[in-house]
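Let's practice the habit of predicting before peeking. Look at the sequence and jot down your guess about where helices and strands might fall. Then scroll down.
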Amino acid sequence: MGKTLVYPKTSSNTVNRYKDRATYDLGPIHSIINSSPVLHVSFSPDPNDPFPAILPMLGQMGSFEYPSADINEPLDCYLHGYVSSRIINLSRSSDSEGLPVCIAATKIDGFVLTLTPNSHSYNYRSAVLHGYATLVTDAQEKMYAMKLMTDSVIPNRWDNTRVPPDNAEMSSTSILRVKIVDGSRKNRTGGPSDEKKDTQRSELTENIWTGVVPVYETFGEPIPSPSNKVKEVPEHIRSYVDSTNESNRAYAENVAVNKLPSKSDTN
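Done guessing? Here is the structure:
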């Protein structure tokens, strides 16, 4: 088994509260980014603006230089944006290192209900990355990133559409490549954690329900468009919807009772 690669601990990414819930391993961090439909990307829009900006964006981890790189290996984060958006313009005009950005993603796996309001919690998985964003100008790399992100929505979707995009479509879309400097992942699993002073009081334990309500993303039945002429939902959609619904449910239910997945789990 190869060596586990980790991000360096810095003042930006070191977890201080509940340190035992944190990991700096590349794979678990990248998996949260890749399984989150929306990433929240923050940056400083202007030295004279006191407020940071934050945008919901589509993104995926990948490596154009090494397309076969594993999720546990060093990867860039590609972000999809409109050609004239503020973050694109700032990245275009930034220095050679790029625009400093922070990328965050969170998945909720359960509501943890306890005897007292103060100890209620979530089961969750969260990841934060820091890096420098630059505009992708190479046509092949841009196409690589667009395929990467299209297939992150539904696997094999790129090959089941009209491809490649035409010149107008390519011109209206910009891709940012974020060179990652550091990152961290934090998660909570398991059931309620009540204090002994409360668990020993029968008037509480006999009248207040405690436990975990599993929370997981569920895809509904695909609905055809008015212009659709394909009678059956294609297998690449059907199989993904069914298998992901099952795996999401199983994950949330398992972590509620601390049946933890392996480190290589991609959820």
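How did you do? Residues 32 and 127 are 6 Å apart (CA to CA).
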